[in-house]
Amino acid sequence: MVAATPLIIAGAAFIVGAKAGLFNIGLEGQLLVGGMAGLIAGFSLPGLPLVIHLPLALAFAFVAGGIWAGFAGWMKVASGAHEVITTIMLNFLALRLVEFLLRHPPVQNPERADPISKSVLDSAALPPILAWLDPSLRVNFGILLALLVALAVGFLLWRTKLGFEIRVMGVSPRAGRVAGMNPARTIILSMVLSGGIAGLAGASLTLGVLGRATPDFTAGLGFEAIAVALLARLHPVGVVFSGILFGALTAGGRYMGVVAGVSIDLVTVIQAVVLLCIAAPVLIKRLYPFIFSSAKEV
Questions:
Q1: Domain range summary for the chain, segments of one domain joined by +
Q2: Model confidence over 276-294: pLDDT tens digits?
């Protein structure tokens, strides 16, 4: 569950952009920025109670991730720059920004010479939810946050006006314009929401099991979350199950690496095979449509 939490949240973030026809490959950068913003709020505001400090830190993460992704949305609207290019560039920029912050006060831990941040205060840390059962269990409130995010994304996309506009723009931007929708507004809002949710995924790391940040604290989770969302067929409910699957594979791979000396790369191979099995029917149908057409005729 610990490994699945950021994957579920970031996968839901990708779904929001994908439903609007946007390929937000910048999840990694948005996780970095959101996680750092939440962490900074988490150690910079002492004296606040948990019920105020934790939501405030999560809000900082959401806003920071949303603003970061909003740049890509704005550039697409203003100049037609493709979101894949701009978000990849923002990924590198986010990585360098995090490295800079971790090497300078007030973010860097004054007791360390290496690039590592201060630890989050207990009042902003995601509380464990199974400590009463076994103190060694690291499952925290983040998994509940992930489920809430998945439900919220589903409600947004299928029960709100904005969600309807997002889905229409993803299917046919021309139809959306004819219906009086504002494509520029929808694109920017979709990217802001996608980035904000990705920021929450980053905060689930820095406010959760890590409790601090290092230059590579996301460990490529932003890219892995894209695979999680695609495996879920871009559905918020499916992303919960695919996130748990990928999280279990990751956790199991680490355990096998320690106990049996099996390379973690085996997990990557298994994940790729799973995706190929899911994508194969679609690819075959597009490459060899006559097979399906003849089957229908029979």
A1: 4-262
A2: 777 667 667 766 676 656 5
